[in-house]
């Protein structure tokens, strides 16, 4: 692969970042993942807006303009011959030259890294026909999940717990309600109504979430933004997740109990179709 590091396009084995980089030592970094279908970027502007918001929340100056990021994304697609896949972008607070809890002095250059992940047939995943099985795991992440930082150890642990329990993924719960998935937003459908947690510091403000809710409202579907419990999800007609990498993906089992009839439901199927049609 050709990857991007601080303005340069390099073979991946020649791309380097300092051992003192705060992204490495402190997880002092934010990221975005944008999907590519047929060579086209999905929801690019939304991801750039959220990147700016994440950086702002951490008092980091955005080192590049949206147009510069767009050019780099397009170059990486081109140089790596990506048809379907993902582009990962990470901005760290840079390399202060030593380890220190205090932020480095102003003017320390941020580190910008981007790379591609080729995923042929990304939109045709067979899982969309069968659905995901998930378990609930307590949400032990920090209190600013709306900032898309690279502190992904706890979501990784939750994912591994799900795998150890023989299922695909986990939904995280706090004070009895579902916050979100390990790397996606969570939804249930009851009586035709789409229910998903309201935006706050408790969850990532998903770019796919925003698009899917907009399309749902445009299609006259009812949407309610509120928290829900695992018990309510198990009694729902349908459940699903959204993210840039999975688009809309049905959930058919929660903590060993099937959701609805235990198969992929019409609302998740329709939303997936609408999202893929409208976004590409
Ligand atoms: N994850 N919630 C969390 C905790 C996430 O990590 C993500 C995205 C989402 C969905 O956001 P969006 O629709 O903007 O992708 C929700 C990305 C895909 C990842 O970490 O790979």
UniProtKB/TrEMBL annotation:
<dbReference type="GO" id="GO:0052654">
    <property type="term" value="F:L-leucine-2-oxoglutarate transaminase activity"/>
</dbReference>
<keyword id="KW-0028">Amino-acid biosynthesis</keyword>
<keyword id="KW-0100">Branched-chain amino acid biosynthesis</keyword>
<dbReference type="GO" id="GO:0005829">
    <property type="term" value="C:cytosol"/>
</dbReference>
<dbReference type="GO" id="GO:0009082">
    <property type="term" value="P:branched-chain amino acid biosynthetic process"/>
</dbReference>
<dbReference type="InterPro" id="IPR043132">
    <property type="entry name" value="BCAT-like_C"/>
</dbReference>
<dbReference type="Pfam" id="PF01063">
    <property type="entry name" value="Aminotran_4"/>
</dbReference>
<dbReference type="GO" id="GO:0008652">
    <property type="term" value="P:amino acid biosynthetic process"/>
</dbReference>
<comment type="function">
    <text>Acts on leucine, isoleucine and valine.</text>
</comment>
<dbReference type="InterPro" id="IPR043131">
    <property type="entry name" value="BCAT-like_N"/>
</dbReference>
<keyword id="KW-0663">Pyridoxal phosphate</keyword>
<keyword id="KW-0032">Aminotransferase</keyword>
<dbReference type="InterPro" id="IPR001544">
    <property type="entry name" value="Aminotrans_IV"/>
</dbReference>
<dbReference type="GO" id="GO:0052656">
    <property type="term" value="F:L-isoleucine-2-oxoglutarate transaminase activity"/>
</dbReference>
<comment type="similarity">
    <text>Belongs to the class-IV pyridoxal-phosphate-dependent aminotransferase family.</text>
</comment>
<dbReference type="GO" id="GO:0052655">
    <property type="term" value="F:L-valine-2-oxoglutarate transaminase activity"/>
</dbReference>
<dbReference type="InterPro" id="IPR036038">
    <property type="entry name" value="Aminotransferase-like"/>
</dbReference>
<comment type="pathway">
    <text>Amino-acid biosynthesis; L-valine biosynthesis; L-valine from pyruvate: step 4/4.</text>
</comment>
<dbReference type="InterPro" id="IPR018300">
    <property type="entry name" value="Aminotrans_IV_CS"/>
</dbReference>
<keyword id="KW-0808">Transferase</keyword>
<protein>
    <recommendedName>
        <fullName>Probable branched-chain-amino-acid aminotransferase</fullName>
        <ecNumber>2.6.1.42</ecNumber>
    </recommendedName>
</protein>
<comment type="pathway">
    <text>Amino-acid biosynthesis; L-leucine biosynthesis; L-leucine from 3-methyl-2-oxobutanoate: step 4/4.</text>
</comment>
<dbReference type="InterPro" id="IPR050571">
    <property type="entry name" value="Class-IV_PLP-Dep_Aminotrnsfr"/>
</dbReference>
């Amino acid at each position: 692969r050709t990857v991007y590091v601080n303005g340069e396009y390099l073979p991946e084995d020649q791309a380097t970042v300092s051992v003192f980089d705060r992204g490495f030592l402190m997880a002092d970094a934010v990221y975005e993942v944008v999907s590519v279908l047929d060579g086209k970027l999905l929801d690019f502007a939304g991801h750039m807006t959220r990147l700016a918001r994440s950086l702002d929340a951490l008092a980091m100056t955005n080192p590049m303009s949206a147009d510069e990021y767009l050019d780099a994304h397009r170059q990486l697609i081109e140089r790596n011959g990506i048809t379907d896949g993902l582009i990962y972008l990470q901005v760290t607070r840079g390399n202060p030259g030593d380890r220190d809890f205090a932020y480095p002095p102003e003017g320390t250059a941020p580190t910008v890294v981007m790379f591609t992940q080729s995923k042929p047939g990304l939109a045709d995943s067979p899982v969309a026909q069968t659905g995901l099985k998930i378990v609930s795991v307590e949400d032990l992440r920090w209190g600013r999940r709306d900032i898309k930082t690279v502190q992904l150890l706890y979501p990784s642990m939750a994912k591994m717990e799900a795998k150890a329990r023989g299922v695909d993924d986990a939904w995280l719960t706090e004070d009895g309600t579902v916050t979100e998935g390990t790397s996606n937003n969570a939804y249930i459908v009851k009586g035709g109504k789409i229910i998903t947690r309201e935006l706050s510091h408790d969850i990532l403000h998903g770019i796919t979430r925003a698009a899917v809710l907009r399309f749902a409202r445009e299609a006259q579907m009812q949407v309610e933004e509120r928290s829900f419990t695992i018990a309510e999800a198990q009694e729902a007609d349908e459940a699903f997740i959204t993210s840039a990498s999975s688009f809309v993906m049905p959930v058919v089992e929660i903590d060993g109990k099937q959701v609805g009839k235990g198969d992929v439901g019409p609302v998740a199927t329709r939303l997936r179709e609408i999202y893929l049609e409208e976004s590409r």
